[in-house]
């Protein structure tokens, strides 16, 4: 069967891989290459930053972690780290998908994957094309008339689906040199989330959540605030050199839409969890295409 996957971020490429693996003739159509996607800006720690109950989130997360363990791909390392929860908060539903979780008061520790997303996306693109997938960089303005289509266009997916529940949520990060941090750290106790995610040569520090943001120009004041928060969370970053600041626009929806409507399989609304949910969602996409 001929299938067009719209979107070349982590969800689109994972879906294209699974479809090609199943024997379909797949074309990926995207306005920009993977390195220009929101996925490429992601911090890359594998756990879903959501609290709403949704068994799919746990299943998709567990599947993605299993796939990453099997792939042994460049840019992926499994490391132990900590998440500081708000006082008295219950264990998150997704904790069961993590390796060796331990709770001490409001501090969680577990092992998960850290993904250097630009490195991993480049590898995944190579793997997809090796399976015979054709990749085209062009604007996609309609899902009609293309046969079976997977709508995995991230922020653009809502427009293509006529779904106004999709909103951009800006997220700014700062990359620092990695002083050799052994694991990740996330602080969810404040009004926002602070995270430190080491990738060997650099550390991704964040973050912000700015609903409705439409530009990707880093704000120097926000950079300074991120540096202050992350150095408080991880003092070993005190002398780390600032490499760059980046902004991504997360494709947020109250819940992920993953369903087939006629010849279109919609798979969008992952917010900041695309890296975490991609391979689980890709399995469901392949099943829906048939």
UniProtKB/TrEMBL annotation:
Domain FAD dependent oxidoreductase: start-end pairs: 2-288
Gene3D superfamilies: D-Amino Acid Oxidase, subunit A, domain 2, NAD(P)-binding Rossmann-like Domain
The entry's keywords: FAD, Flavoprotein, Oxidoreductase
Pfam short name (any one): DAO
Uppermost EC category: oxidoreductase
Cofactor(s), by name: FAD
GO molecular function: oxidoreductase activity
Enzyme Commission designation: 1.4.3.3
Catalyzed chemical reaction(s): a D-alpha-amino acid + O2 + H2O = a 2-oxocarboxylate + H2O2 + NH4(+)
Stretch forming the signal peptide: none
Similarity field: Belongs to the DAMOX/DASOX family.
Name by which UniProt lists this protein: D-amino-acid oxidase
Gene source species: Amycolatopsis melonis
């Amino acid at each position: 069967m001929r299938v067009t996957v719209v979107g070349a971020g982590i969800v689109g490429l994972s879906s294209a891989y699974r479809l090609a693996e199943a024997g379909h003739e797949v074309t990926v159509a995207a306005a920009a290459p993977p390195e220009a996607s929101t996925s490429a800006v992601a911090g890359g720690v594998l756990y879903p930053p959501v609290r709403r109950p949704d068994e799919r989130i746990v299943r998709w997360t567990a599947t993605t972690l299993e796939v990453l363990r099997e792939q042994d791909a460049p840019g992926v390392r499994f490391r132990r780290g900590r998440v500081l929860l708000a006082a008295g908060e219950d264990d998150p539903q997704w904790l069961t998908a993590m390796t060796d979780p331990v709770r001490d008061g409001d501090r969680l520790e577990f092992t998960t994957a850290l993904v250097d997303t630009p490195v991993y996306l480049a590898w995944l693109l190579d793997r997809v094309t090796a399976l015979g997938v054709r990749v085209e960089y062009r604007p996609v303005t309609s899902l009609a008339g293309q046969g079976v289509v997977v709508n995995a266009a991230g922020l653009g997916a809502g427009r293509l689906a006529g779904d106004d529940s999709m909103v951009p949520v800006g997220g700014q990060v700062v990359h620092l040199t990695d002083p050799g941090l052994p694991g990740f750290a996330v602080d969810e106790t404040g009004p926002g989330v602070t995270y430190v995610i080491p990738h060997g040569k650099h550390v991704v520090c964040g973050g912000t959540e700015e609903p409705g943001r439409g530009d990707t120009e880093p704000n120097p004041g926000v950079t300074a605030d991120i540096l202050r928060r992350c150095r408080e969370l991880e003092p070993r970053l005190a002398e780390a050199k600032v490499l760059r600041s980046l902004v991504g626009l997360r494709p947020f929806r109250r819940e992920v839409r993953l369903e087939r409507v006629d010849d279109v399989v919609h798979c969008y609304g992952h917010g900041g969890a695309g890296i975490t949910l991609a391979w689980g969602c890709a399995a469901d996409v392949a099943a829906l295409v048939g």
